[in-house]
């Protein structure tokens, strides 16, 4: 008999009844729902299955019986991978859950920067009426997508249907619907040179850490905008601040940062060509509803031993 724990933050909407209906009472003896680290720490010792947001390594070390961890998130770099790997825990993630709402964030960010809505909001705060603010459009512009996974492909689809030219980066370049040209990871400079908007969706790995550096920022178009929805560590923040101050690029929209919360001392807060959101582009009121098919499939496989789990994380790659 197994014990399963759902560590789901209190602000996330979900149906406890729907979750419990997925569980075979002959396989699961206990089902617990917690929403605080201290609560999780109290019950982790004899937990077999954990469905959770990122948690501390100290908690995982106490999980003597842990066999499978279903991450609610897509990225697992915030999880104690080393400890999970040492225990032989299967890790699955929420890949695919974010596809629609994160693509909408990307499209909204490009339109906002094209119409300079961020500048008009600042003017509103100071009661300033300025009709000289430039109004552009994304139709006909080129968007470069760093990472053509499920989210990147959904952005490509939406951007293409809105009249944009779409190019992108993929580990193994191949023909992808709605993408006009696909580059390999070693061709990032070529993509940056062509793009009016660059959307970064890359995970943080040994290969991608600070991949957007001073050299790459310097080849971008002067009117280009960078949108970071991947991981903060993939951008050299010091070089980025210099690029923004000296107008190597036109603007920056970011939902993720190397240090979070972004320190109040960061120059990014004060720059007029920067829009900051607090790591929320992956959030949605429909989040758990979207996760349910993945969870249902993986629970079925875990309970019955037949079939394949969805979204098993490759610990060597980190995603």
Automatic annotation (TrEMBL):
D-isomer specific 2-hydroxyacid dehydrogenase catalytic domain segment(s): 36-282
Assigned keywords, A-Z: NAD, Oxidoreductase
CDD domains linked to this entry: 2-Hacid_dh_1 (cd05300)
Positions of the D-isomer specific 2-hydroxyacid dehydrogenase NAD-binding domain: 108-280
InterPro entries: D-isomer_2_OHA_DH_cat_dom, D-isomer_DH_NAD-bd, NAD(P)-bd_dom_sf
Gene Ontology molecular function, alphabetical: NAD binding; oxidoreductase activity, acting on the CH-OH group of donors, NAD or NADP as acceptor
Keyword Ligase attributed: no
Any Pfam family hit: 2-Hacid_dh
Family of this protein: Belongs to the D-isomer specific 2-hydroxyacid dehydrogenase family.
PANTHER family linked: 2-HACID_DH_C DOMAIN-CONTAINING PROTEIN, D-ISOMER SPECIFIC 2-HYDROXYACID DEHYDROGENASE NAD-BINDING DOMAIN-CONTAINING PROTEIN
Full protein name: Phosphoglycerate dehydrogenase
Organism (species): Tindallia californiensis
């Amino acid at each position: 008999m197994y014990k399963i724990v759902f560590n789901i933050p209190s602000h996330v909407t979900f149906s406890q009844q729907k979750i419990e209906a997925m569980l075979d009472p002959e396989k699961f003896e206990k089902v617990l729902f917690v929403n605080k680290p201290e609560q999780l720490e109290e019950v982790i010792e004899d937990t077999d299955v954990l469905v959770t947001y990122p948690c501390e390594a100290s908690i995982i070390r106490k999980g003597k019986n842990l066999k499978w961890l279903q991450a609610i998130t897509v990225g697992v770099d915030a999880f104690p991978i080393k400890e999970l790997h040492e225990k032989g825990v299967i890790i699955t993630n929420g890949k695919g859950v974010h596809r629609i709402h994160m693509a909408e964030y990307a499209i909204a960010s490009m339109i906002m920067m094209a119409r300079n809505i961020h500048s008009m909001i600042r003017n509103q705060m100071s009661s300033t009426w300025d009709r000289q603010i430039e109004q552009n459009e994304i139709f006909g512009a080129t968007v470069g997508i760093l990472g053509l996974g499920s989210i990147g492909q959904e952005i490509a689809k939406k951007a293409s249907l809105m009249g944009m030219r779409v190019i992108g980066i993929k580990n193994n370049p191949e023909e992808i619907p709605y993408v006009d040209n696909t580059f390999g990871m070693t061709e990032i400079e070529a993509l940056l040179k062509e793009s009016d908007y660059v959307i970064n969706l890359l995970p943080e790995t040994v290969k991608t850490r600070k991949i957007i550096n001073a050299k790459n920022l310097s080849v971008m178009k002067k009117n280009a905008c960078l949108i970071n929805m991947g991981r903060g560590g993939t951008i050299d923040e010091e070089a980025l601040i210099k690029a923004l101050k000296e107008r190597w690029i036109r603007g920056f929209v970011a939902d993720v940062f190397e240090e979070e919360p972004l320190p109040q001392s960061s120059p990014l807060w004060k720059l007029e060509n920067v829009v900051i959101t607090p790591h929320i582009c992956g959030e949605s009121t429909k989040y758990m509803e979207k996760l349910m098919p993945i969870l249902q499939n993986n629970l079925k496989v875990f309970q019955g031993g037949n079939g394949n789990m969805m979204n098993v994380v490759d610990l060597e790659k980190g995603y």
